[in-house]
Amino acid sequence: MYNVVGVVLNEKGKVYNFSCNNLELKKGDYVIVETEKGLQYGQVAVNPYEVSVDDIGFELKNVIRIATKQDDKQY
Question: Rounded distance, CA 26 to CA 20, Å?
Fold first, then answer.
């Protein structure tokens, strides 16, 4: 089972799913996530929920960490 969270990466509002990576996250948290383009800043838009590996069909990228004040400034 994956513990999944939905994250918005930009103003367009598309929600991408990421593995929570054992972090306690909630809607509204700012996070750093691993993407194909490298690390990106985003906001949790969907509270964590569980999904089976079979339902996903591919390996999810991870939330790396909750964003720090430095991450907020840089964004």
Answer: 10
Q: Which residues pair with 66 in a beta bridge?
A: 31
pLDDT per residue rounded down to tens, the chain (75 residues): 889 999 999 878 899 999 999 999 999 999 999 999 999 999 999 999 999 878 887 889 999 999 999 998 888
The kind and range of the H/E element at 71 are: helix 69-74
Q: Across the chain, where does the E strand assignment appear?
A: 2-8, 15-19, 30-35, 38-51, 63-66
Phi, psi of 56 (to 5 degrees): -75, -50
